[in-house]
Amino acid sequence: MAILKVIEVLSNSEKSWEDATKKAVVNASKTVKNIRSVYVQEQSAVVKDGEVEEFRVNVKITFEIR
After folding, report:
1. Distance CA 66, CA 33 (A)
2. Terminal-to-terminal C-alpha distance of the chain
3. E strand or H helix at 19
4. How far is CA 63 from the centre of its chain?
5. Counts for the chain of helices (H) and strands (E), in that order
6. Domain count, the chain
């Protein structure tokens, strides 16, 4: 039986929500091992002068505790 833990991570990107999600996983994997999945809980964006300046995501990362 596997034991899983979930952490919440905030990330941002100037490119896209997908890129922000990838950055969250890459950065979390530097200290968290055995990541199984990522769930995008919330998306938002910062708008400046009528254009999207930054994409933001709030993700839940699930990993196995061994």
Report:
1. 9
2. 10
3. helix 17-28
4. 13
5. 1, 3
6. 1
3-state secondary structure of 21: helix
Domain of residue 36: give its range.
Answer: 3-65
Cβ-Cβ contacts under 8 Å for 3 (sequence gap 6 or more): 64, 65
pTM for the model stands at 0.91
Q: Does residue 35 contact residue 62 with C-beta atoms inside 8 Å?
A: yes
Cα distance between residue 1 and residue 57, in whole Å? 31
pLDDT in tens, 4-61: 999 999 999 999 999 999 999 999 999 999 999 999 999 999 999 999 999 999 999 9
**Residue 25 tokens, joined:** 């996983």
Find the CATH number of the domain harbouring 60: 3.30.1660.10
